[in-house]
Write a structure and sequence with these properties.
This protein is of the alpha+beta class. The protein has 2 domains: 196 residues, Homing endonucleases (Endonuclease I-creI); 80 residues, no CATH class. Helix content is 59%, strand content 14%. The protein contains 11 helices and 8 strands. β5 and β6 form a beta hairpin.
Length: 314
């Protein structure tokens, strides 16, 4: 099962205790995944069709717990996936669901889910859970972080983004074909969203992946940094040895002051030694800055000798 499927399976088992939260969640599922059909003048039916068993199970359970309605459930077996259809055909039952959910066709409402249904913070959580179950998905966190809910209209996408924003998170909306997608890409915010919706086990699984990825990233950064430092040290040592050999060839070490002669011989003998290690070999010992000063002096001498050689050639 995919990580997204695991999250939905967990969320399908989260049934709010408060009736107002149950109403908010089932309203989100109905609006994003269901259909309200007018069978005759003022008479309606509800039909929800999905290939996701967790959505079907959740909506069926919410209808029973919230409205004490035993909806009709049909399963059509396909070669790839089953299709689940939940129907409520009794006009009075449908009217009760739509009135309580503020979804009666023709009635004025400020957003696709009436704001009165999501005034409480707990109802906002239930609303987001229903929206994600209906048309959301999460990428495999081992690959990258991406949370999204696909909406059939910009109005619905904007309300979902607004509700997410109530939890101090920033979601974005992008148009994809004929739909609008509300998405979040920041790993820490996705963890928080899962917690808000009640997917606590998935939160722990995602956090474990995040910690492991961060550790790997930290190790890689340290390795890259150390590799860069090693390359820098090696390149510097190679250049120092070139200068020292040039000095040895042109004037010999005996022409150098004692301190420079010592460090020149040590560098040739220990080409891979660090400045600190070279300094510890000197008698008396010298610190890194002292060793660096002597090597810079040798570099200056080599450059001066090269300039003199160039003048002689002219």
């Amino acid at each position: 099962m995919s990580f997204s499927g695991e999250v939905k399976e967990e969320l399908s088992r989260q049934i709010p205790e408060a009736r107002h939260c149950q109403i908010a969640e089932q309203a989100a599922i109905l609006e994003l995944c269901g259909q309200i059909r007018e069978e005759s003048q003022g008479q309606y039916s509800i039909k929800l069709q999905t290939e996701n068993v967790y959505v079907a199970r959740k909506y069926f359970t919410l209808l029973r717990k919230t409205f004490n309605i035993e909806a009709e459930l049909a399963v059509r077996q396909n070669q790839r996936e089953n299709t689940y259809t939940i129907s409520v055909n009794d006009p009075e039952q449908v009217r009760r669901i739509l009135q309580v959910s503020r979804l009666m066709p023709g009635e004025a409402k400020d957003t696709f889910i009436h704001s009165a249904l999501v005034q409480r913070r707990c109802c906002k959580r239930a609303f987001l859970r229903g929206a994600f179950l209906s048309s959301g998905s999460i990428s495999d966190p081992n690959k990258f972080y991406h949370f999204e809910v696909v909406c059939p209209s910009l109005e619905k996408a904007e309300q979902i983004r607004e509700v997410i924003g109530c939890f101090e998170m920033e979601a974005r909306i992008v148009s994809r074909k004929n739909h609008f997608v509300v998405y979040v890409k920041e790993g820490a915010q996705i963890v928080e969203l899962l917690g808000i919706m009640g997917a606590n086990v998935s939160v722990m699984n995602l956090e474990n992946v995040r910690i492991l990825k961060e550790m790997r990233g930290s190790v890689n950064r340290k390795v890259n940094c150390e590799t860069a430092n090693i390359n820098k040290t090696v390149n510097a040592a190679v250049k120092q040895m070139e200068d020292i050999r040039f000095i040895q060839e042109k004037i010999g070490f005996s022409a150098l002051p004692e301190g420079l002669e010592q460090i020149a011989k040590l560098r040739l003998e220990f080409p891979e030694a660090t400045l600190a290690e070279l300094g510890a070999m000197l008698s008396p010992a010298v610190g890194k800055s002292g060793v660096n000063h002597r090597l810079r002096k040798l570099k200056s001498i080599a450059e001066e000798l090269k300039r003199e050689q160039g003048g002689e050639l002219l």
